[in-house]
Every structure is written in structure tokens, then in C-alpha cells.
Amino acid sequence: MSDAMLTLQDLEIHFPTKGGIVRAVDGISLSVKQGNILGLVGESGSAKSTVGRAALRLVNPTGGKVRIDRVDITTAKSRDLKDMRTKA
To answer: Are 10 and 64 contacting, i.e. CB atoms less than 8 angstroms apart?
Structure first.
């Protein structure tokens, strides 16, 4: 995975609700190399968009790592994220 442009490692995204915790994403790992395309398929409500939002850190992961070009964006500062997003 070292030459991957995007890496998700054990990604978890949980949302608190009145009824308890919803485990929307529970331990997904994947990597995409530069120039490759990855499609996520699944039923409606299976958290495909949530994974995409976490890959851009528009949703904060509950656990795991998201790396773009070897930079761990799960711990990046807001200013650094803004710079990364505008350079793309």
C-alpha cells in the first residue's frame, strides 16, 4: 500500500443517535493507486457516500486512518486540509 494515492485503513464511522450508536462503517480498508479508479457499490443506505466523505474528511472518522499521498488526514489541521483540497 505504500505507493497508494489513497489509503483507508480499518476505517470506522459511528454516529450517536437517540436510540444508541449507529455503526455506519465498521473496519473498511482499501487503497487506490495513482491513475486507478475504484467504485463502491452497495444497497441504498450502505454508507458508500459516508466512506467518500470520510476520505475527504468531510466526516470525521471514529477510528482508523485515512491517508492521501502518505499524509494522515485523520489528524491534519483544518488549514492543512483546506490547502490539500484546493490543490487537487
So the answer is: yes
Range(s) of the domain holding residue 52? 4-87
**pTM recorded for the entire structure:** 0.82
CATH number, domain of 16, equals 3.40.50.300
Closest by CA to 31, choosing from 75, 56, 67, is 67
Cα gap 60→75, rounded to integer Å = 10
pLDDT at 1 over 50: no
Exposed/middle/buried for residue 25 (C-beta within 10 Å: 0-12, 13-18, 19+)? buried
Using CB atoms within 10 A of its CB, is residue 14 exposed (0-12), middle (13-18) or buried (19+)?
middle
